[in-house]
Design brief:
- The chain is mainly alpha-helical.
- It has one domain: Growth Hormone, Chain: A (Up-down Bundle), CATH 1.20.1250.20.
- The chain is about 80% helix and about 0% strand.
- The protein contains 19 helices and no strands.
- The chain starts with a helix and ends in a 10-residue tail after the last helix.
Length: about 425
């Protein structure tokens, strides 16, 4: 297997770890709230504290990956967030849990922007869509795996020991990455001359890369950047529900046992993995037919249409099976939008793809922050979960309109 394909394997495993560590708190929700005497709204703030820390550090982490390289940055951020995964096990109340999850989120902020910067250096343009799809499918498979497995770990080991075990796995990945990866594929001893030439020839888009800096003012004056941020906010609003409130929602609404609820909650995440592969494959297939802009726009617009339809259906579902089936359609669609979104950031950002993708992901995770609070508060104010799902559907329709006027062919440095 070519060395650049091992890069995709490594980032796939990173994405799995990222989401196992992220979703484990949802699977342990009942044990944590009982042990620390937390209300549902307090737990919602804990979930959103992660999303806020994750969002705020996206642009700085992406800029750091552009400047220092993904080898150093990914090693450092994985070690940092693994430390705070372990520290979560030491929480003694609402305030300490809130602080640890905020810092955990801040650590995770550099992961996907660092991967985007590595993909820019290591992958030809025509391979980036599927690589992004495989990468993000790891996060969905990791979350799907975590929901039933962490629920079982909590039952047998307790929630505190479970978090310590997960911290150790993170430190192991960080050590492997530092040993294996180099920022420039031309310097990797296992990259053959043929593969090196293929990468160098295939990774540049028309117009080449600018060598100069990308000031924040120039980036934020780009319509493409604001459109990318807006549509990613909508995508994350839909998806983050599966990482936070789906598991407890299924348990409470349909009176399921923890492992049973974990298996049901895993289904939309598996659909999300399939959506990533589908979206990534479409991006590359359409690009290779010479339609650069369409290769980004159409997979994303189709995905958002499916997400809106799935959320409307889930609002009317009367059984756990029906609710999960509609949500699987919604998450399949929402995750179809990820490969075109991150490919867009590499298209317009180029050598600054870490900073641009981090800025998009910042906006997306402000959507995650809103989701963690919107679900419990809308339910409390209205006495129903239906308004939450209808709001999410409306956001997906707005995202379709945003993609209709996005132009991947317009780089920021021109």
């Amino acid at each position: 297997m070519a060395r650049r394909h091992w890069l995709v394997v490594g980032t796939f495993l990173l994405a799995m770890l990222l989401y196992v560590d992220r979703v484990c708190i949802s699977a342990a929700k009942d044990a944590i709230t009982a042990d620390l005497s937390l209300s549902d709204t307090q737990f919602g703030w804990v979930l959103s504290a992660f999303a806020l820390g994750y969002a705020l550090l996206q642009t700085p982490a992406g800029a750091l990956a552009d400047r220092r390289g993904p080898r150093l940055v990914l090693t450092g951020v994985v070690a940092f967030w693994s430390f705070f995964t372990g520290m979560t096990a030491l929480a003694q109340g609402f305030v300490s849990l809130l602080a640890f999850r905020f810092l955990f989120g801040a650590g995770e902020a550099g992961a996907f922007p660092g991967c985007a910067r590595a993909f820019h250096s290591w992958l030809p343009v025509g391979e980036r869509g599927l690589a992004q799809g495989v990468n993000f499918s790891g996060s969905r498979l990791g979350a799907a795996f975590a929901l039933p497995v962490v629920a079982a770990m909590v039952v047998h080991l307790g929630w505190r020991t479970s978090f310590l075990v997960l911290a150790g796995i993170g430190f192991a990945w960080a050590a492997w990455w530092w040993w294996w990866f180099v920022d420039d594929p031309a310097l990797h001893p296992k990259v053959t001359a043929g593969e090196r030439a293929l990468i160098l020839r295939g990774r540049e888009l028309p117009g080449g890369d600018a060598a100069g800096p990308l000031p924040l003012s120039r980036m934020l004056s780009s319509r493409n950047v604001w459109l990318a941020m807006g549509q990613y906010f909508c995508s994350n609003f839909t998806f983050f529900f599966c990482l936070t409130w789906l598991f407890p929602h299924l348990r409470a609404t349909y009176r399921l046992e923890p492992v049973e609820a974990g298996l049901f909650a895993a289904a939309p995440l598996l659909a999300g993995a399939l959506g990533n592969w589908t979206g990534g494959g479409l991006v590359d297939a359409i690009y290779r037919r010479g339609a650069w802009g369409a290769s980004r726009r159409w997979p994303a617009m189709i995905g958002f249409a499916l997400a809106a339809a799935g959320l409307v259906g889930s609002a009317r579902a009367e059984s756990a099976l029906a609710a999960v089936a509609f949500l699987s359609v919604a998450i399949f669609g929402a995750d179809m939008t990820l490969p075109p979104s991150w490919s867009l950031c590499i298209d317009i950002g180029r050598r600054h793809s870490g900073k641009v993708s981090g800025t998009m992901n910042m906006a997306g995770n402000l959507g995650s922050f809103v989701t963690g609070l919107a679900f419990p508060y809308l339910r409390q104010w209205t006495g129903s979960t239906t308004p939450f799902f209808l709001v999410g559907a409306g956001l997906n329709v707005l995202a379709i309109l945003a993609w209709a006027v996005t132009r991947p062919e317009e780089p920021l440095d021109r």
